Amino acid sequence: MATRDASHAGSWYDDDEKKLSSQLDGFLSRVPDQLDDHGLPVPDARVIIAPHAGYSYSGPCAAWAYKALDLRAAKRVFILGPSHTYYLRGCALTTFSKYATPFGDLVVDRNTVNELRETGKFTDIPARRDVDEHSLEMHVPFLWKRLQQTFGDDSTKYPPIVPILVGDGSAEEEKAFGKLLSSYLKDPTTAWIVSSDFCHWGSRFSYRPHFSDGAIRDMDAPRSKGVRHEVLNVTPPDWSKLGISSGEPEIHDVIKVLDQLAMDAVESGEHSEFYKVVQDSHNTVCGRHPIGVIMAALEAVDGKGKFKFVQYQRSNLVKKSFDFSVSYASAYAVV
User: Fold this and answer.
1) Of the candidates 169, 153, 126, the residue with the CA atom closest to the CA atom of residue 291
2) Helix H or strand E encompassing 5
3) Residue 104: which of 151, 71, 72 has the closest Cα?
4) Per DSSP, what are the bridge partners of residue 99?
5) Nearest CA to 308 among 36, 19, 98, 30?
6) Which residues lie in coiled coils (predicted)?
7) 24-38 in b/e burial notation, b at 16+ Cβ within 10 A?
């Protein structure tokens, strides 16, 4: 039973314990101490959505979700993330017993992992792919910091983690996994971290929607469809109501509109609505399947718990077709 190395430490985030601790403290300190008339953490906010890019990019945004996360009753923490390192259909479980961080190791809940494996519905994450994957790892130092703030310096008191990669799947498959996981979601001592960035805009992502001739069109639409700039199945907003009197929005305005459609769908609490919005807009929300699974789980728990987005940022305000941008959003749900 090996320990998964902190493979992105020293590149995506600092590998020096003191520097990393100071950076995370700084991110969290810049988040207000109160959100939505609640002191932080938000009572019973056991589920969050947070981004997973390098901390210099997404750390300030992720801090909003982490400061809202209520870990005071936590005895187990699920981490759901998308697979960037290999094609995955369905869900897969870690084979490691611990996840390393510059602060120390977080223990994997082997009992829960084995329970899930025994259902026959999960595969195992290949060890090399697990180490290469960043969507789970980027949350472990943030989680450690919040556990330290909640339980003190004795890491033996920290709840174990359940890392799960969520791969490709139909709406029905997402609902099936959501139903399976809903029994764990009902447990008030279980917390959940859902890992996702939002729109990835640029040629490297094969997704460059912009507004032209009265419609939102994708410059990178597949040529096989016979139309170079495919019109997305999205109704453009009244740009003047968004303060764009010229009716000619910048590309970053279009990105924000597409992300807002996705966030509104998540906040609706309806799994089918979110699935449809992503299908219609083709928005490159990399954690769309983990989000879909947790939304299905929330619906299965008598529809209790809806997400509330508290922060939205972009790595760059795109104006030119050769630019690049990744969007970050943070949300919490009270269950």
Assistant:
1) 169
2) none
3) 151
4) 4, 106
5) 36
6) none
7) beebbeebeeebeee
Number of helices followed by number of strands (H, E) in the chain: 9, 17
Q: How far apart are CA 51 and CA 70, in angstroms?
A: 18
Joined together, the tokens standing for residue 330 give: 């943070």
176 exposed, middle or buried (CB, 10 Å; 0-12, 13-18, 19+)? middle
CA angle, corner 100, sides to 124 and 2, nearest 5? Answer: 50
pLDDT digits (tens, 9 = 90+) for 279-330: 999 999 999 999 999 999 999 997 678 999 999 999 999 999 999 999 999 9
Separation in Å, CA 106 to CA 19, 58, 116: 19, 22, 19
Q: How do the residues of the chain divide into helix, strand and coil, expressed in percent and rounded to 5?
A: 40, 25, 40
Q: How far apart are CA 95 and CA 215, in angstroms?
A: 47
**Any idea which of 32-36, 180-184, 285-289 has the lowest mean pLDDT?**
32-36
Alpha carbon distance 127, 174 (integer Å): 24
The first and second tokens of residue 186, run together, are: 């009902």
- Model confidence over 60-83: pLDDT tens digits? 999 999 999 999 999 999 999 999
Cα–Cα distance between 153 and 48 in angstroms, integer? 23
Amino acid at 210: H
One-letter amino acid at 16 equals D
Q: Give the separation between CA 279 and CA 282, rounded to whole angstroms.
A: 5
Residue by residue, DSSP assigns 310-324 as: EEEEES----STT--
Gap between the terminal Cα atoms of the chain: 33
Catalogue the E-assigned strands of the chain: 3-4, 34-35, 38-39, 47-50, 76-82, 91-93, 98-101, 104-107, 122-124, 161-166, 190-195, 200-201, 209-212, 215-218, 230-231, 307-314, 325-333
CA angle, 63 as apex, 2 and 31 as ends, to 5°? 155
